[in-house]
């Protein structure tokens, strides 16, 4: 089959286009954590109830997770540039609507739309990186993406604290959303000029797997709802949704397998899971995010509710983690090609050591000086996080055929969102249960952090097991034969390889 060669953009335009993608990714991921310190402001200025505040946080995570895989597949089929720009425009409009919301109910609605838009943007970023870069440059680009993922999540509480401190309690929460407007508009204008136009796939036009979307969406919804609403839905009945989720996801797997056997284009190419690098990387990512994102949730609550820090001071206390994470991710992007999964093992070990250091610090230095005492452990954990997220993303997606990069990125990030929700539910339950029984003591945050370390150890065990398997039984370089890429990917052939 003759394909049309897609001329790659010049180097400077590719890296500038990457900057646009990372900027959009930054503001969409920032919004997962920036609102945490703004909840008291919403209660004071808008009269938002606890239920409404919960949905402002969890509703965003929920729709974000639901949109990832369908949006990634849509970008694979119809063009990642178009899907990215539409998602970014919708996110910017939804941010403006959130900031202007006249009531808590409208805020929740606009927040759900904002999360959907963020879920549209995220998988296009990884797909565009796959298209625009190869080899060492691709690892470097994923390293920068890892920096954005780590820093945006960690810096959210600081950014929210700064805004509320500057504007005031009554309207500070509105500016948590308004801050997205100039960034979103600038990124949209730059994206229209810089993002490359890759031609559509040659040959038969693929159909969108709508029934697969319904099965996957229902399964993810049933899985995430009891997790994101764990504190608000009392009783055990909510956990009945878990077996329902398992049945729906099993039905989705069977349907996708059937679609593939019939020669149709499934929503998720199950062949991706035959790549050990993708399967292990997705599991490591899910486990790590279940432990990593919970740290900022319980630690900033501890600093404000138990120690008496302001929102700004609590945000400043996690800044060492954010800054160190950026440094670690940049280094990880350069080192991953040489060291592979070993780098992820080192990174996860660093995070565990850093969090254990925080546990010791809050015991030895209670009171107002705890932020200074935890700074060094936070730096260690941040460097470890940078050496984990960036290299693991590179290793997980590097063998994925470019024509499936959007859907693969959606699967990876869906695991991250599910992991985050599950981790917050588990760690939050430990933290709040101890507070309920023993008051606001230092022991509550120590138990919460130790639970997070335990979850991160699961990711570490997976990474160590994979590393030992590779060392004792090296895999052959090429195992799956060539995967032909149409004009969308530049008319070349890519050999899918297993391994790191």
UniProtKB/TrEMBL annotation:
Region (Disordered): 472-500
A single Gene Ontology CC term: plasma membrane
Membrane-crossing residue ranges in chain numbering: 17-39, 51-71, 83-102, 108-129, 141-163, 175-196, 208-227, 239-256, 277-302, 308-331, 343-364, 370-389, 410-432, 444-465
Main location per the UniProt record: membrane
Cleavable signal peptide: none
Source domain of life: Bacteria
Keywords in alphabetical order: Antibiotic resistance, Membrane, Transmembrane, Transmembrane helix
Residue ranges of domain Major facilitator superfamily (MFS) profile in the record: 17-471
GO molecular function: transmembrane transporter activity
Subcellular location: Cell membrane
Membrane topology: Multi-pass membrane protein
Gene Ontology biological-process entries: response to antibiotic
PANTHER family in alphabetical order: ACTINORHODIN TRANSPORTER-RELATED, MAJOR FACILITATOR SUPERFAMILY MULTIDRUG TRANSPORTER MFSC
Protein name per UniProt: MFS transporter
Species of provenance: Streptomyces cellostaticus
Lineage: Bacteria, Bacillati, Actinomycetota, Actinomycetes, Kitasatosporales
């Amino acid at each position: 089959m003759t394909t049309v060669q897609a001329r790659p953009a010049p180097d400077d335009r590719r890296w500038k286009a990457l900057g646009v993608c990372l900027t959009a990714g930054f503001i969409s991921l920032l919004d997962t954590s920036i609102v945490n310190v703004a909840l008291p402001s919403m209660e004071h200025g808008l009269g938002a109830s606890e239920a409404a505040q919960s949905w402002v946080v969890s509703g965003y995570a929920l729709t974000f997770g639901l949109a990832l895989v369908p949006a990634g597949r849509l970008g694979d089929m119809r063009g990642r540039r178009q899907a990215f720009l539409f998602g970014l425009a919708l996110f910017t409009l939804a941010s403006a609507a959130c900031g202007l919301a006249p009531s808590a109910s409208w805020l929740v609605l606009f927040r759900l739309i904002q999360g959907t838009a963020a879920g549209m943007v995220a998988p296009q970023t990884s797909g565009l990186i796959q298209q625009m870069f190869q080899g060492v440059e691709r690892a470097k680009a994923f390293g920068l993406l890892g920096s954005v993922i780590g820093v945006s999540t960690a810096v959210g509480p600081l950014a929210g604290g700064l805004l509320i401190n500057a504007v005031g309690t009554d309207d500070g929460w509105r500016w948590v959303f308004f801050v997205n407007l100039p960034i979103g508009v600038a990124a949209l204008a730059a994206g229209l000029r810089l993002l490359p136009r890759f031609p559509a796939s040659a040959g038969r036009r693929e159909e969108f797997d709508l029934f697969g979307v319904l099965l996957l969406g229902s399964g993810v919804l049933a899985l995430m709802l009891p997790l994101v609403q764990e504190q608000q839905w009392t009783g055990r009945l909510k956990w009945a949704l878990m077996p329902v989720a398992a049945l729906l996801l099993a039905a989705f797997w069977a349907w996708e397998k059937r679609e593939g056997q019939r020669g149709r284009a499934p929503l998720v190419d199950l062949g991706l899971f035959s790549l050990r690098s993708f399967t292990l990387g997705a599991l490591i990512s899910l486990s790590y995010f279940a432990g990593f994102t919970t740290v900022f949730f319980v630690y900033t609550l501890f600093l404000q509710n138990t120690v008496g820090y302001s929102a700004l001071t609590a945000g400043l206390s996690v800044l060492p983690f954010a800054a160190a994470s950026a440094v670690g991710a940049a280094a990880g992007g350069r080192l991953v090609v040489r060291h592979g999964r070993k780098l992820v093992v080192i990174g996860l070990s660093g995070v565990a050591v850093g969090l254990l250091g925080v546990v010791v610090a809050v015991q030895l230095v209670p009171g107002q000086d705890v932020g200074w005492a935890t700074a060094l452990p936070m730096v260690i954990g941040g460097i470890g996080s940078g050496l984990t997220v960036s290299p693991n993303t590179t290793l997980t997606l590097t063998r994925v055929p470019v024509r499936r990069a959007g859907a693969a990125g959606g699967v990876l990030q869906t695991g991250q969102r599910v992991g985050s929700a599950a981790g917050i539910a588990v760690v939050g339950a430990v933290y709040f249960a101890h507070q309920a029984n023993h008051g606001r003591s230092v022991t509550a945050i120590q138990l919460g952090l130790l639970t997070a370390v335990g979850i991160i150890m699961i990711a570490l065990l997976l990474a160590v097991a994979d590393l030992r398997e590779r060392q004792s039984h090296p895999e052959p370089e090429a195992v799956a034969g060539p995967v032909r890429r149409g004009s969308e990917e530049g008319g070349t052939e890519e050999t899918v390889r297993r391994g790191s």
